UniProtKB/TrEMBL annotation:
It comes from Actibacterium naphthalenivorans. Residues 28-118 form the DUF1828 domain. It comes from the Bacteria. Pfam families: DUF1828. This is DUF1828 domain-containing protein.
Length: 255
């Protein structure tokens, strides 16, 4: 048995190259997240050529909820692009290689195919990365609205209770303070509830506690924790329901 030949045969049997007006259409045995066959193209112009995706890849990822306005996800994408020698054309939204001599284009096929398979990982970010992205996106939006100087982190707003720290603190020009807790799990929700109780107990003026959910996914936060939060004095908001609306709500409550 020659394992190398068998592996090559198994892969190549599923590889189909067809000549098309732009150059070549290449269908692979690898499947896309949708179950469709992963295909790409070799665009040929005279003696030069490059590889590019079908033009729908970026749209497909965004359609599945990948937010490329997120700094975190763009960093991940940039790392994949650099690692595999791929570029994102801003003009037409294509993932493509650089232009090379037509005779060299075959050598770029495997790195390009590897990129196309790995870019799907953006759909399957683990929960910790997603939480981090949500928090970073929220902070970025708050800093854009209130300026960086008015936004601070992990701060104790009640002097007599130094252990009750607030995740994100926004000091508005009015003098009021938004005490914001991103709701990423049960612990963060209960921390926010306890803080709001202490604000009320100590009659702290000018502090508005917020609990901002990334979404209403019940897998991340239990129903019991949600009910406790809804019955508290916390001001709730849902990031996935409209980012601009969340920021505007914070503005209204502290103006």
């Amino acid at each position: 048995m020659n394992l190398q030949k068998e592996i090559c045969a198994a892969f190549c049997d599923g590889l189909v190259v067809r000549q098309v007006p732009m150059g070549y259409a290449i269908s692979t045995p690898v499947t896309w997240f949708s179950g469709d066959t992963l295909s790409f193209y070799a665009r040929v112009e005279g003696e030069r050529a490059r590889l590019e995706d079908s033009g729908s890849l970026l749209f497909d990822l965004e359609g599945q909820g990948v937010d490329f306005s997120s700094e975190n996800r763009m960093e991940l994408l940039s790392g994949l692009l650099e690692e595999h020698g791929v570029m994102l054309s801003e003009d037409d939204g294509l993932f493509c290689t650089e232009w090379v001599q037509k005779a060299r284009i075959a050598k770029l096929a495997l790195p390009f195919l590897t990129f196309l398979t790995r870019v799907q990982d953006l759909l399957f970010l683990n929960r910790e990365i997603v939480k981090s992205t949500f928090r970073e996106d929220l902070i970025s939006a708050l800093e854009d609205t209130f300026t960086e100087q008015r936004v601070s982190f992990s701060e104790a707003l009640i002097p007599s209770l130094p252990h009750y720290t607030v995740d994100i603190v926004v000091r508005a020009p009015s003098g009021k303070v938004a005490a914001i807790f991103p709701a990423t799990n049960d612990v963060s929700v209960l921390r926010a509830v306890l803080f709001s109780m202490e604000v009320q107990k100590h009659d702290v003026a000018g502090v508005v506690p917020f609990l901002i959910y990334e979404n209403l996914d019940k897998a991340a936060i239990t129903q019991q924790s949600r009910e406790i939060a809804f019955n508290s004095d916390l001001t709730p908001a849902v990031w996935s329901g409209g980012r601009d609306e969340v920021i505007q709500k914070v503005q209204r409550y502290v103006q």
